[in-house]
Design brief:
This protein is an alpha/beta fold and 667 residues long. It is built from 25 helices and 20 strands. The mean pLDDT is 98. Bound molecules: thiamine diphosphate.
Length: 667
């Protein structure tokens, strides 16, 4: 017993000393958090979590999220010690170019990192999405005798995470949804960058989480491994509420001069202090990156413990393949990113006779038409489903009593919704979407950016995409949003021109695998472009295409979304006046940029440089496509509150003005 206790103590101190060494070698990083939180991390990797380090993709593994991503050396060390694909040399390459061990954990670089973290609060909220994902998978695929999915979501979060508003949004949602599969450990060390957290953070965290409906426990001594382990066991036994365990720790524990100080938060301890840490914890101050054999053996054995469980799970899934062949097949192909065959046959086709249709309405029709064929397409809105038209009418809502529901009520919590969607997107087989007004994409930029960094594919549906929304006025009318979203690397933004382009936008979004998709839709009705007269909307997949051509065009009119029908009308008027104008619909800059040079030259020949771009957003970025001989009709001010038609007239989005601008180019 005593021997075991000594081993555990040595193991935890090994982690502390390694963290101090690795941050010191990089001469950059955060040593304090790993040193303080090492005991709780030990409990997770040595006892609590079910995982197999040799098989990090095993689907029913417990998920671990280091929400306090700056403390990533803690996670890197545990992945190394337990036998994931990371070496001591990788620890020594911390924060170096192209290493597996960047300054914050990055999804995709190293198995065992479930999600990219660093912007505080995100990991906390992603975990709620992971938890929703597990509940949905269990509700759809678990069957009597086949408890396929029962994994837990673990996280270590910090003061910074709980300061951030997004954790409040996500915690409130998790409490409401009674997500009992969440077990979070709060590294309550009372220190952040500016010093004692008491300078800005004095609320009673335990009471706050109780109010959210969480199961709250307090461990007074962060070095009491048994107390932490007992609390985690109790958290596991609590299945109807998410759990948080507030663990009182000490930043940089083991460092005689830096413990409990902000100085240990974000800079190396210094060579002299690292030596003192080693002396203090019984290590040789002249040796670096030392892992005692018995410690390595102990953790490597921990890393293998899950193998037996995984084997049993694999056997269970083999049986499941026999008894529930359809579901097994469905899950496996969706997990690989393959959509059920025939789903595209369900896509609707719209005709001009259908009358004017807002693209949000068309989108709603698409979603409802394909919902049966795509059983893991799930999502909702931030209290705007009736406006964003994102409700799946035949299906129930996802509630604490029904985790198989497909409609999500995220509440008026856009930021939380975005982060939760990222966690859902990281769950195998699930295709999540979330909706709000385009203007409120501003409230969810952090998760959009992180989805783009991770190249994961939540689908963000943004309606009410311009001054065309009318009376709600300036505050609700997007101006700079399109260009600011387009400026995010890896993003795919689609602004369809009519109902049929909206169908194609969903097709492309659902087939896309390389990053977040943003579908931008109108509030106002738009004519359906006649597919028998003009280029097929399937060409949307090329990003920009010649929608309507003429012989020897003198000018090119280009537009996205609602402005496409405007330039179509202008084309007809120009024709009456003897001016040949080509119309290019340009629903996606990103897709167009991926086309080869010959295609780009075909759409925008260098010989035709009289070009007019029309978009009810910021003109920024259009210069590239109009050349220095073209011009841009766009919004250079905020909007106004008035009926949409009046606004379009006031800001110059009229056929006559487009005609005039085109003629100005030619004169
Ligand atoms: C959204 C966001 N804002 C600011 C930062 C910069 N930052 C990194 S760590 C930190 C302080 C966090 O303190 P705490 O969470 O208590 O971590 P500890 O001091 O325990 O390591 C801050 C402000 C960040 N990473 N994310």
């Amino acid at each position: 017993m005593e021997q075991k206790k000594n081993l555990v103590e040595t193991a935890i101190n090994t982690v502390r000393v390694l963290a101090a060494d690795a941050v010191q070698k990089a001469n950059s990083g955060h040593p304090g958090m790993p040193m303080g939180a090492a005991p709780m991390a030990h409990v997770l990797w040595a006892e609590a979590m079910t995982y197999n380090a040799q098989s990090p993709d095993w689907i029913n593994r417990d998920r671990f999220i280091l929400s306090a991503g700056h403390g990533c050396m803690l996670q890197y060390i545990y992945l190394f010690l337990t036998g994931y694909d990371i070496s001591m040399d990788d620890l020594k390459s911390f924060r170096q170019l192209h290493s597996k061990t960047p300054g914050h954990p990055e999804y995709g670089l190293l198995k065992g990192i479930e999600v990219t973290t660093g912007p505080l609060g995100q990991g906390f909220a992603n975990g709620v999405g992971f938890a929703i994902g597990q509940k949905f998978l269990a509700a759809r695929y678990n069957k009597p005798g086949f408890e396929l999915f029962n994994y837990h979501i673990y996280s270590i979060c910090s003061d910074g995470d709980l300061n951030e508003g997004v954790s409040a949004e996500a915690a409130s949602l998790a409490g409401h949804l009674k997500l009992g599969n969440i077990i979070y450990l709060y590294d309550d060390n009372h220190i952040s960058i500016e010093g004692d957290t008491a300078i800005a953070f004095t609320e009673d965290v335990a009471k706050r989480f109780e109010a959210y409906g969480w199961h709250v426990q307090i461990v007074k001594d962060g070095n009491d491994v048994k107390a932490i382990a007992d609390a985690v066991q109790k958290a596991k036994a609590e299945t109807s509420r998410p759990s948080i365990i507030n663990v009182r720790t000490h930043i940089a524990y083991g460092s005689p001069n830096k413990v409990d100080t902000a100085g240990a938060h974000g800079s190396p301890l210094g060579d002299a202090e690292v030596k003192l840490v080693k002396q203090n914890l019984g290590f040789d101050p002249e040796q670096f990156f030392v892992v005692p054999d018995e410690v390595l053996k102990f953790y490597r054995d921990c890393g293998k413990k899950g193998a037996e469980k995984e084997n049993a799970w694999n056997a269970l899934f083999s049986e499941y393949r026999k008894t529930h062949a359809d579901l097994a097949q469905e899950f496996e192909s969706l997990s690989r990113g393959q959509l059920p065959s025939g789903w595209k046959d369900k896509l609707p086709v719209f005709k001009p006779e259908d009358g004017k249709l807002a693209t949000r309405q068309a989108s709603g029709k698409v979603l409802n038409a394909i919902a049966d064929a795509l059983p893991t397409l799930i999502g909702g809105a931030a209290d705007l489903a009736p406006s964003t038209e994102t409700f799946l009418k035949k299906y129930p809502s996802f509630t604490p009593d029904n985790y198989s529901g497909r409609n999500f009520h995220f509440g008026i919590r856009e930021h939380g919704m975005g982060s939760v969607l990222n966690g859902m997107a990281l769950t195998p087989a699930i295709i999540p979407y979330g909706a709000t007004f385009l203007i409120f994409s501003e409230y969810m930029r952090p998760p959009i950016r992180l989805a783009a960094i991770m190249k994961i594919r939540p689908i963000f549906v943004y309606t009410h995409d311009s001054i065309g929304l009318g009376e709600d006025g300036t505050t609700h009318q997007p101006i700079e949003q399109l260009i600011s979203l387009r400026s995010i690397p890896n993003i795919l933004l689609l602004r369809p021109a009519d109902a049929n382009e909206t169908v194609q936008a969903w097709r492309v979004a659902l087939e896309y695998q390389n990053g977040p998709v943003v579908i931008v839709l109108t509030r106002q009705g738009l004519p359906v472009i006649d597919q028998s007269k003009y280029t097929a909307a399937t060409e949307l997949e090329k990003g920009a295409y010649i929608l309507s051509d003429v012989e020897k065009p003198a000018v090119i009119l280009m537009a996205t979304g609602s402005e496409v029908s405007l330039i179509m009308e202008a084309q007809a008027k120009l024709k009456e006046q003897g001016i040949a104008a080509r119309v290019v619909s340009m629903p996606s800059w990103e897709l167009f940029e991926k086309q080869d040079a010959a295609y780009k030259e075909k759409v925008f020949p260098w010989s035709i440089r009289k070009r007019l771009a029309v978009e009810t957003g910021s003109p920024l970025g259009w210069h590239k496509y109009v050349t220095d001989e073209g011009s841009i009709l766009a919004m250079t001010t905020f909007g106004e509150s008035a009926p949409a038609g009046d606004l379009m007239k006031f800001f110059g989005f009229t056929v006559d003005n487009v005609v005039k601008k085109a003629k100005d180019l030619l004169s």
